[in-house]
Amino acid sequence: MTESVSGGTSGSSLSYYLSRHRVDFKTAGTVRHNLWASYRIGDKLATVWGAPADFQIHKNLKTKVRDLFWGRSIDFDSNILTDEAVRKFCREWDKFRPDILVAYAGGLDFFVKRARDMKLSFAPPRAIITSAEILTQEARNNIEDFFEAKIFNRYGCREFSVIASECRYHNGLHINAETLLLEFEPIDELADKRKHCRVFITDLENVAFPFIRYELGDVVIASDEKTPCPCGRGLPRIDEVGGRVMDYLKLPNGRYASFTAITSTFFPTVRGIIKSRIIQKKIDKILVQIVKNNDFDEESYSRLRQGLARVLGDTVEIELEFLEDISREKSGKYRFVISEVAE
């Protein structure tokens, strides 16, 4: 049995357990989608990723056996981007020539815009796998044009790994229905005529910690499935993922910080936080909204202050606001980070 912590994209973190049986199914689901994206065992990988915990796990597994079996990799931490870091990754890419690029969708789009402004170029990978954040059509076009490679988007989270993923026809995302049951609750107030839905997930395999109608806080566009996918797979589909749009914070020193720089580093260690949201009012002013319970104490307050200062820098004014609740947007999305600072 393995203990883990959710990524906090819903505004709060959850400690949970995975049976060994479930870990195997998570791995199998990931490998299956990687194979759909033309990945082959031994391929060289590049990552543009934003979760430090994932980086640490990856480094722990990076042994000679792992390199021979799964393939070596070069990694770019998308939490905070600097021009020098982008240039360095470009040089590493040129020497390494990865076969597959795996990335946060929004982080990669942001990375590409910076690289394009710097007039950098990258040898095309065979395919790009995006996840973790919403992939807009604009971002897909931007990334595919820059790297001259096709994107295979997938919807997943730390609790379940791959939930749904694209095949080579890019005709919606096939749900990992052998292990997960997805239920959809329509959102009525949207003007868009497509079927926007909140999604509830039941894990059919994790006996160590049952997830039953678990809501991630995401919104998906449900598919009517009138036309079968040309790939011939009978798995149900969703048209696209419409939630988890996370803003980057532009800092006074010119750097950018993503929500994972905050949620994946110290937020899970602060006791008593039920829900939270960060609003950037000015380039040097951050409002942190907190919904707390009785476990939140002076140590929590101190740890929160110190953690925010460590990530954002001492030139940023931090204001804490304690609320009874933090509401969702009309779309049903919960945005952990909102930047009101115009580019």
Descriptive notes:
- The chain is α/β, with parallel strands linked by helices and 343 residues long.
- It folds into 2 domains: 2-171, ANL, N-terminal domain (Rossmann fold, 3-Layer(aba) Sandwich); 249-339, 2-Layer Sandwich (GMP Synthetase, Chain A, domain 3), CATH 3.30.300.
- Helices cover 27% and strands 31% of the residues.
- It is built from 8 helices and 20 strands.
- It has helices at residues 20-36, 52-61, 64-70, 83-96, 105-117, 137-147, 260-263, 298-312; strands spanning 2-5, 15-18, 45-49, 73-77, 80-81, 100-104, 127-131, 151-157, 161-165, 173-175, 180-186, 196-203, 214-222, 237-241, 249-250, 256-257, 273-282, 285-292, 317-322, 337-339.
- Strands 4-3-6-7-8-9-10-14-13-12-11 form an 11-stranded mixed beta sheet, with helices on both faces. Strands 19-18-17-20 form a 4-stranded mixed beta sheet, with helices on one face.
- A hairpin with a 7-residue loop joins strand 9 and strand 10.
- Residues 60-65 have low confidence and may be disordered.
Brief sketch in words of this structure:
The protein is an alpha/beta fold and 343 residues long. Helix content is 27%, strand content 31%. The strands form four sheets. The protein has an eleven-stranded mixed beta sheet, with helices on both faces. A four-stranded mixed beta sheet has the order 19-18-17-20, with helices on one face. A three-stranded antiparallel beta sheet has the order 5-16-15.
Write the layout of secondary structure elements.
Layout: E1 2-5, E2 15-18, H1 20-36, E3 45-49, H2 52-61, H3 64-70, E4 73-77, E5 80-81, H4 83-96, E6 100-104, H5 105-117, E7 127-131, H6 137-147, E8 151-157, E9 161-165, E10 173-175, E11 180-186, E12 196-203, E13 214-222, E14 237-241, E15 249-250, E16 256-257, H7 260-263, E17 273-282, E18 285-292, H8 298-312, E19 317-322, E20 337-339
Parallel strand pairs: 3-4, 3-6, 6-7, 7-8, 17-20, 18-19
Antiparallel strand pairs: 1-2, 5-16, 8-9, 9-10, 10-14, 11-12, 12-13, 13-14, 15-16, 17-18
Helix pairs in contact: 5-6
